[in-house]
């Protein structure tokens, strides 16, 4: 550049302005992400929280993390507080599907983009969020159903199933039930004789399974648990009732966390359908894309598989959660 009196004067003015501004204003502003987590109800959830925290650190994103302890009202409070703090992006995993319209409208009015992770919301207005990333829970239920149909294809008599549902009103509980029923209804020998929530926790899974065993005992052929933690709790109840898990009662669950692999290797769980909690890196790159003005797909589906007990020992060393 040619140095004229005018360019020199401009350069000197810019330099003296820089000296007057605080260093923080000159440095690039960090993106601030407000994240409202469901709680810490399961091994899956712990791995999901860890994935989000470590990915935020790695991406240089400032994370405001809030644990809702499985309560929708706490999530709504957290989202309102993120709005008041004027964060750049809000992300959350909704504990239940419905009841989000009002708070999502408040975020939209404040021009704060919202990303849904893991679980979706039930709304007619999909302009209330930018993108939903996570598993296809209906398909997970179908995978569980298909595995059972294949396993029992030569069984002549009735197959009595007890079901441990996830949190009432949550997307995974609704969808996993739906997908499983869609598959087993093709053969009337499959009967769900009892179905109750175990709230995705080990303690509740054990408690409800104890009640199932008390009511139906040896009549139960299959346990379908909407997550591994409830299955692990139920395994304890089955053993305490003097029965052999995975032999006297076939056990199917969802998540494929390390605890499930340990149970499969010990011969106590027949199969676990994969549901990946490792959503952190994907979320951080979405947050950066939003800030850069890039368009995101409305739905990003996680690719997953299914692990029967026969492959557990071989797969276990590769598992990350
Ligand atoms: O939303 C995902 C589900 O929530 C997981 O399957 C379960 O373990 C968790 O609590």
Notes on the protein architecture:
The structure is a single chain. The chain has 321 residues and is of the alpha/beta class. It has two domains: 132 residues, Response regulator (Rossmann fold); 139 residues, Response regulator (Rossmann fold, 3-Layer(aba) Sandwich). The chain is built from twelve helices and twelve strands. The strands form two sheets. It has a six-stranded parallel β-sheet, with helices on both faces. A six-stranded mixed β-sheet has the order 7-6-8-9-10-12, sandwiched between helices. The N and C termini lie far apart (56 Å). The relative contact order is 0.13. The structure holds alpha-L-arabinofuranose. The site of alpha-L-arabinofuranose has 13 residues, from helix 3 and strand 9.
Q: What order do the helices and strands come in, and which of them pair?
A:
Elements: H1 5-20, H2 23-26, E1 32-37, H3 43-59, E2 62-67, H4 72-84, E3 89-92, H5 101-109, E4 114-117, E5 131-134, H6 137-151, E6 159-165, H7 171-184, E7 190-197, H8 202-216, E8 222-225, H9 228-240, E9 250-255, H10 258-265, E10 271-274, H11 280-291, E11 299-301, E12 306-308, H12 312-315
Parallel strand pairs: 1-2, 1-3, 3-4, 4-5, 5-11, 6-7, 6-8, 8-9, 9-10
Antiparallel strand pairs: 10-12
């Amino acid at each position: 550049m040619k140095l004229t009196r005018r360019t020199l004067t401009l350069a000197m003015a810019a330099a003296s302005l820089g000296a007057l501004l605080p260093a923080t204003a000159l440095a690039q502003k960090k993106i601030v992400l407000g994240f409202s987590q469901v709680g810490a109800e399961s091994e899956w959830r712990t791995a999901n929280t860890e994935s989000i925290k470590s990915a935020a650190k790695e991406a240089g994103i400032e994370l405001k993390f809030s644990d809702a302890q499985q309560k929708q009202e706490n999530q709504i409070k957290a989202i309102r507080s993120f709005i008041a703090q004027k964060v750049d992006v809000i992300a959350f995993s909704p504990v239940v599907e419905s009841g989000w319209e009002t708070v999502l409208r408040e975020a939209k009015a404040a021009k704060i983009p919202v990303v849904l992770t893991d679980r979706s919301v039930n709304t007619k207005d999909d302009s209330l969020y930018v993108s939903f990333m996570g598993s296809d829970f209906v398909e997970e239920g179908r995978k569980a159903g298909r595995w059972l149909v294949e396993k029992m294809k030569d069984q002549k008599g009735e197959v009595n199933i007890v079901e441990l549902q996830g949190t009432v009103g949550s997307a995974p509980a609704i969808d996993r039930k739906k997908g499983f029923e869609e598959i087993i209804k093709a053969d009337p020998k499959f009967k769900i004789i009892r179905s109750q929530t175990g709230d995705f926790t080990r303690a509740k899974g054990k408690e409800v399974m104890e009640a199932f065993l008390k009511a139906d005992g040896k009549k139960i052929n299959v346990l379908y648990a909407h997550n591994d933690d409830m299955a692990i709790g139920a395994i304890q109840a089955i053993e305490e009732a003097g029965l052999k898990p995975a032999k006297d009662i076939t056990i199917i669950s969802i998540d494929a966390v390390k605890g499930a692999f340990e149970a499969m290797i010990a011969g106590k769980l027949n199969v676990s359908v994969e549901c990946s909690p490792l959503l952190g890196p994907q979320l951080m790159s979405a947050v950066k894309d939003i800030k850069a003005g890039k368009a995101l797909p409305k739905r990003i589906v996680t690719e997953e598989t299914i692990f029967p007990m026969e492959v557990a020992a071989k797969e276990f060393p590769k598992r990350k959660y």
